[in-house]
Write the structure tokens for this entry.
Amino acid sequence: MDIVVLLKQVPDTETLIQIADDKTSIRTEDVKWVINPYDELAVEEALRIKEKHGGKVTILSTGPERAVESIRTALAMGADEGVLVDDPAIQGSDALGTAKVVTAALRETGYDLIIAGQRAVDDDGYQVPAAVAELLGIPQASMIIREEITDGKIRCERTVEGGTVVVETDLPALFTTQRGINEPRYASLPGIMKAKKKPLVRKTLADLGIDPSEVGVSGAKCRVVALSFPPERSPGRIIEGETAEAKAAELVRLLREEAKVI
Amino acid sequence: MAQGVLVFAEQVDGSFRKIAYEAVSEGRRLADTLGETVTAVVLGSGVAGIAGELRKYGADKILVGDDPVLADYTTDAYTNVLFDIVKDNDPRMFLLGASTQGKDLSGRLATRLEVGLAMDCIVLKLDGEKIIATRPVYGGKLLAEVALEGTPQVAAIRPNVMEIVEVAEAGNWESISINTGVVKTRVVDKKLETASRVDLTEADVIVSGGRGMAGPDFSVLEELAGVLGGTVGASRSAVDEGWRPHSDQVGQTGKVVSPNLYIACGISGAIQHLAGMGSSKYIVAINKDPDAPIFKKADYGVVEDLFRAVPAITAELKNLKG
Ligand SMILES: Cc1cc2nc3c(=O)[nH]c(=O)nc-3n(C[C@H](O)[C@H](O)[C@H](O)COP(=O)(O)OP(=O)(O)OC[C@H]3O[C@@H](n4cnc5c(N)ncnc54)[C@H](O)[C@@H]3O)c2cc1C
Ligand SMILES: Nc1ncnc2c1ncn2[C@@H]1O[C@H](COP(=O)(O)O)[C@@H](O)[C@H]1O
């Protein structure tokens, strides 16, 4: 089975995010880059499926050269091959642009199963996987915590408000991960050594036959026009009181009379 | 020429979700500014009976697509049907909720329509006839204003943020003929809790527990949530400890919530937790460490052992209710 994981490199969640001078992007100096946490779950699930059913796990990412480090980490976890589509014209792409690039690359790698994160914790977009599935014309299941593959069919347990729903479909298909699906393994030292020798191919838009005007800022149908910091929460107040009961009474009074939320 | 606002009103098992009312109300507001009409769409099986409810929120027209295939949400069937409805109605804007269903559906639909989509928006402004949508990015560390190309402009709105506005009832519903098209996914099982528990993303009040709970017994929080009509959530630490299910996790790798009142009990206030609850209207922190970072984000802080403070708050509320 050919399993492809869509992996995005994102700023570490602890990183201080600063707005760049253009006001529409962030400053990338001093950012620590990591694998998007949901994509880590995707890599882990791909490896487990491979261990059970055999096959090959390919890591596919579009991004700048630095993303190689994240692909290598996934290879060190146990994935077999990496593909990075790196082209200056891709910068500024929206979800649809990214999906076009990813889709063209998927047509070259081949796929029976595509695994992505439910969202990238930078743009919080929740969009690229659905766009990829649509462009490929294959079924999708999002935010799943369990999968089961038998006879060319996949069953996915999706999380929805108030519970879960199990959907079944034929492969090829795409699903996205939800916390709870697995606990990602760490790359072992031998894994890291082996990863250095695993194939990692770089491609450009020309290699994939994509017209640069279709992607990047020029092709974007959803464009960031301004970034700003959310309003600071006004500094709160510590409730005074001698006892827990006194504090409780004061808190309840404030919630009723001042905040008027209860 | 494209005209009006089309709103997808989400229902599950014959009841509208709260987000459906939020989306129709927001659609009404935009349409009023534009001087145009709002059309709501309801899809499901046996849902004609509930469609009229949307008149209360200002839908001028309600289109009902009823088909056994639509009984349970599937990406394929809902995308196929909504694509046709959008093409037939040619709206200027299309709104839906960024619920789990809306997130799954909107990316697929916008791609098929070849239009821009603004996901998980908290504010929609109009610049002439164009939507400028505000959406949190980087786990809420920044807000992005985005502009959309293509018609219709599609915006998925974050649950529990936009106001539900009731208006004088108007409009009517009509059933439309639909074609569910090729459907490759089947729903084979459903495990949904009963209506007794409101989902975190829709809750007005959330009482969350963290590592400070020191074990799986969350009964003090359940009781407080009970008197407040709220829902219990958790930090990732509490989930990782196995004290609470993953579905209770609030944060960057959990649910993003926007209740009126969020009460964090025994939670330190890590950046990834704040990413999930920072947009709550009021935040109360109960923590025995006066230096806990959560106090910097809380409107009201109670420095106290939670096992003393929480029952005292519950007792105080019960007293008031008499
Ligand atoms: C990639 C990534 C993603 C993450 N995603 C999330 C996420 O989605 N959600 C999330 O929550 N975290 C997330 N985290 C984890 C986050 O960094 C913190 O580790 C976590 O939020 C801490 O949980 P906590 O506040 O319950 O525990 P702690 O930080 O251990 O805090 C416990 C608090 O309880 C207080 N306390 C102890 N006993 C009592 C008592 N009896 N009464 C009152 N107070 C008491 C202590 O003073 C302390 O402040 C993520 C981390 C990473 C790296
Ligand atoms: N540049 C990218 N390269 C590869 N995969 C991506 C990229 N951007 C997004 N994805 C995939 O799509 C998921 C959701 O991303 P998003 O739609 O941006 O929130 C991510 O978790 C990845 O699996």
About this structure: The mean pLDDT of chain A is 97.
